[in-house]
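The instructor's notes for this session suggest beginning with a concrete chain rather than abstract definitions. Hand out the sequence below and ask the class to guess, before any prediction is shown, which regions might be ordered.
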Amino acid sequence: MKKLIALAAIVFFIFSAAYFTSCNNSSDKPAEDTAADSIQQVIQHGEYLATNVAMCIHCHSQRDFTKYSGPVTTGTEGGGGQLFDEKIGLPGKIYSRNITPDNETGVGTWTDDELLRAITHGISKNGDTLFPLMPYPNYNRMAKEDLLSIIAYIRTLKPIKNKIPERQLMMPIAAAYPGQYLQASVDGNIKPSAEDIVKYGEYLTTMADCGTCHSPLTPQGPDMSRIYAGGYIFELASNKVQSANITSDTATGIGSWTEERFLNKFLPFRKEESYNFNPGNQNTEMPVIEIAGMKDSDLKAIYAYLRTVKPITNLVEKFPK
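After discussion, reveal the predicted structure:
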């Protein structure tokens, strides 16, 4: 039975702490129960990050675009196969990989170190380079404890046998690999305290890769000199939709928005009736359903950070012709 290698040290410390605590207080839970509870908390935290912040499940599943925002199709979580192609400005066709624990078509035979390398450096088990559509440059800045929590959660997904087609790029992958921007190790990464709301909001915004989608697209990729200015056009089956300007510009961005207005952009989507309908030609690529599942405090932190980013004037038409 595969062990969660990345959790071994955590489990050791959990058992040790639980043992000494139980020695001092006989009314405490047995060490085994305390360890199991702590491991479950790690997995739950990983599920939250993978589902609502880092958006792993959002991309590595099938989505139903007959409903608003394309909610994940139940039963496909982590199974991959979602197509990303020229319609969203990519140089070819790329399919999200199967990240379920299936041994033949997923990551069931991968070690935790191999998963960590793929997530933070874009190198797969067999040495292939992943296209940076997967935001591993951002994950490369994450705290290792959060990364290991995501890996622990991925291990619990239902195995799905789904062989993914190979990508078809119109450029050499070496030309797209951002190796010079990657840290050699994530061991020293520190998650900001939630009390430092702006820094913590920046950490969450980076993990969610908001900057890629909310920046204008150029032939070389998103224009990071105008990060968060919006204007990235997504061509859906029913319509085109353009990402919003979320800089602090008061005229064309969210500079005049209150915290309440920002939260109300997402909170209604905690109820199924808010997205369980066919929007016709008013659909969006924006993962509002997943974002709605974020904690209020995390959404507030993202808002606090976005209010500090450089204002850029860029009037965006949401549904361009």
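Then share the key points. The two ends are 54 Å apart (CA to CA). The chain has a mean pLDDT of 92.
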